[in-house]
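Hey, quick one: can you model this chain's 3D structure?
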Amino acid sequence: QVQLQESGPGLVKPSQTLSLTCTVSGGSITTSNYAWGWIRQPPGKGLEWMGAIAYDGSTHDSPSLKSRTSISRETSKNQFSLHLSSLTPEDTAVYYCVRVGAGWANDYWGQGTQVTVSS
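Sure thing. Here's the predicted structure for all 119 residues.
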């Protein structure tokens, strides 16, 4: 059973950079044909896909967030991370890490972590 767990600050200030880490257990982030991604949901809005890093380390970014996001990984710890820069209050959301399987389906989700951007 694959499990994902997000970690990071719950409160960040505008203009800062948010860094979130997802720790994966029950499966390796280097297993072929899977990717590991980030999705967020602002209050009262729908889910927004932010990007993913594939098993080979290649990244896939959302066009709308590409200039502000980067996704990295630490294979020795079986973790991957999201970095989102130039934060504004509109970045307030619940952030989820996911496993992306066949057909780009998000088949495993973390429980989500609330991030609030406020001064």
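One thing worth noting: The chain has a mean pLDDT of 96.
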